[in-house]
Design a protein that fits this description.
26% of the residues lie in helices and 32% in strands. By secondary structure, it is α+β, with helices and mostly antiparallel strands. Helix 2 packs across helix 3. The radius of gyration is 19 Å and the shape is globular.
Length: 278
Amino acid sequence: MLVIFNGQLISESEKIFSSLSRTYRYGDGFFETIRVSGRRALWIDLHTERLIRTSKILKYDWPEKLTDRYLDEAIHNLCWKTGNINARCRITVFREGQGYYSPENPKTNFLIELEPLENQKYSLNEKGLKLGEYGLIQKPSNILSLFKTTSAMPYVLAGMFAAENGVDACILFNDQGRVAEAHNSNIFVVQENDILTPSLSEYCLDGIMRKLIISLAREAGLNVVETALNPDELLYSDEIFLTNAVPGIRWVESFREKNYGYNTAFRLVDLLNSSAGF
């Protein structure tokens, strides 16, 4: 399989860093996951904006050539070279330098990879998800919690917990004990005529799909409230659904002893596909 490393097409088996890598040693990196449909990177402008914003927070020297147009063309060309039409794209950004906590060389590297997907359109999962909760590690109340860094151990442990306990996703809590997100998605709940989701001040991930769903729902006349959510409030909700840039929207069938429907989620998938041009 081929990948793009710093603008060059190489084999994924080629060496791109050593054991001295800052990504390996300190998790000094961040990433973006993008859905590619028909060789087109969906909402590449929003993903690029978040990449640039993350680079500023983490004090990376962002290469000027890495515009949304450049990345869109690079992903399109990589699709042709690898034979992918629909794919999950990951862009990983990491620092070159050796050194200890303070890097000796601030050069920014980037890696673009593809993983095939079957479907071009978004579709709602036929079987609802089982949602659990992971409370061993809480998300800290700082700006890093908003971004997708390669220091992802809380998500790894929550994912392992989900697998061990027979659930599809786990809620992560902030350090105030309130709902932040699921371990691989943002979270929304529906209560009568309101759609609620943790606000960014609750230190959930500042997800691209989260932003899109809020915008699309409001344009459709739905009332979306960004707020604080206690876990017990989920038990008084009519629906729970999770959002992520690649699968889109997934509805939750059960949490604790409660079962949920999917009417709002079903409607939002149609709006999402329409917005994507399908």
